[in-house]
């Protein structure tokens, strides 16, 4: 989720992130504004799109909470949000048929209801404004565009292209015969294929002389197909990643040669140890017991601000300890949302290794090569 996205903060315990591609419609409308529409209207139309996506996702979050699902984060795309669940229990509960049907219905229903409310307000306050004048979505008519953006987003999710809502129901049907991983790959493949077809159709329409200009149907098909394709890829990658990390144990990737510090070490001594180590984080041990974690940056900041002192005064006592047989996926879920960059691995109370985000990508790559070599051997 963090790749190609930026955070919007933590709201009611849920990390909200926006995919970088969300700015593509803004760029499209700003380019269209060069044809005579002011740029601020292009920005306003993009904010209207963001609003209808938020309406949809707020309704889905409320429904998820009602069904007891714990959401860790939401990644926003122009076609809607992708949920990441807190723990395997919520992830498994989310694919139950009853929960899936509720989640698939509430998103389109929220958008269609919102479109109806805005249309009623327009009809009541400005009856002279036509809601069916072409083009339906244009920076020149923001309120009418808000109606149609919301309505079209709701209708879009009836297309059986994963990760759209109808596509999720299709995946749910495939799970019973193919299993979760294979069902996701199949549904994702269908979604990506439909996305490519939509982009081809859009390019074909753009080439026609009667497409209606920069705000015609063709560009919308291109954008919609692109975002369906991107969303299907993200979901597929998430399932592949999850299936991989569940098979990796902490003993497979932990560093077994590492430096430790004592709570009675002075900060000057700790800095000297850090100079001769590649680690950025250090376990702090008293005897055989792990009592904290301290970072190279923390040592430097304390020395600069307060002068020499002791490691115990700046070490963090909030840390998660893993066991060698714990899965990497379990550990990632435990520390999700925190800022830990080091996870100590202990066996019968004795620290036997550490896992850092710094070494994890290298370890995973080497582990994959090692497993491939063992299979071929």
Structural features, described:
This protein has 377 residues and is an alpha+beta fold. The protein has two domains: 5-158, no CATH class; 250-376, CBS-domain. It is built from 13 helices and eight strands. The protein has helices spanning 24-32, 39-66, 88-94, 97-125, 142-156, 165-178, 180-207, 217-245, 250-253, 267-275, 296-306, 328-335, 357-376; strands at residues 5-11, 14-19, 71-77, 80-85, 281-286, 289-295, 342-347, 350-356. Strands 1-2-3-4 form a four-stranded mixed sheet, sandwiched between helices. Strands 5-6 form a two-stranded antiparallel ribbon. The protein has a two-stranded antiparallel sheet with strand order 7-8. A hairpin with a 2-residue loop joins strand 7 (342-347) and strand 8 (350-356). Helix 2 crosses helix 4, helix 4 (97-125) packs antiparallel against helix 6 (165-178) and helix 7 (180-207) runs antiparallel to helix 8. The longest helix is centred in the N-terminal third of the chain and has 29 residues, at 97-125. It is elongated, with a radius of gyration of 26 Å.
Low-confidence stretches: none
**Number of distinct helices:** 13
N-to-C series of helices and strands: EEHHEEHHHHHHHHEEHHEEH
**How many individual β-strands?**
8
* Overall mean confidence score, pLDDT: 81
């Amino acid at each position: 989720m963090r790749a190609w996205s930026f955070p919007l903060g933590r709201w009611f315990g849920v990390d909200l992130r926006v995919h970088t591609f969300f700015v593509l419609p803004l760029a499209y409308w700003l380019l269209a504004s060069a044809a005579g529409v002011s740029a601020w209207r292009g920005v306003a139309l993009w904010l209207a799109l963001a609003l209808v996506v938020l309406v949809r996702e707020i309704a889905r979050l409320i429904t998820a909470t009602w069904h007891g699902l714990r959401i860790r984060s939401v990644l926003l795309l122009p076609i809607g949000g992708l949920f990441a669940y807190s723990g395997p229990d919520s992830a498994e509960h989310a694919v139950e048929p009853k929960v899936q049907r509720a989640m698939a219905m509430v998103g389109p229903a929220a958008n269609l209801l919102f479109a109806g409310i805005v249309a009623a307000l327009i009809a009541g306050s400005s009856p002279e404004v036509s809601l069916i004048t072409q083009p339906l979505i244009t920076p020149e008519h923001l309120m009418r565009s808000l109606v149609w953006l919301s309505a079209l987003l709701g209708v879009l999710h009836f297309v059986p292209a994963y990760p759209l809502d109808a596509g999720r129901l299709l995946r749910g049907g495939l799970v019973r015969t193919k299993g979760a991983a294979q069902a996701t790959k199949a549904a994702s493949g269908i979604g990506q294929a439909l996305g490519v077809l939509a982009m081809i159709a859009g390019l074909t329409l753009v080439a026609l002389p009667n497409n209606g200009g920069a705000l015609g149907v063709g560009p919308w098909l291109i954008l919609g197909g692109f975002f369906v394709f991107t969303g299907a890829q993200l979901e597929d990658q998430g399932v592949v990643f999850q299936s991989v990390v569940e098979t990796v144990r902490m003993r497979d990737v932990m560093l077994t040669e590492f430096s430790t510090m004592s709570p009675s070490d002075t900060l000057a001594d700790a800095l000297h140890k850090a100079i001769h180590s590649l680690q950025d984080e250090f376990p702090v041990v008293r005897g055989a017991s792990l009592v904290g974690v301290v970072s190279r940056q923390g040592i430097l900041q304390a020395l600069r601000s307060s002068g020499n002192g002791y490691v115990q005064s700046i070490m963090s006592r909030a840390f998660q300890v893993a066991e060698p047989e714990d899965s990497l996926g379990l550990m990632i879920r435990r520390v999700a949302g925190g800022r830990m960059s080091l996870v100590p691995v202990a066996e019968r109370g004795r620290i036997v290794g550490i896992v850092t985000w710094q070494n994890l990508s290298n370890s995973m790559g080497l582990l994959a090569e090692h497993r491939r070599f063992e299979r071929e051997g």
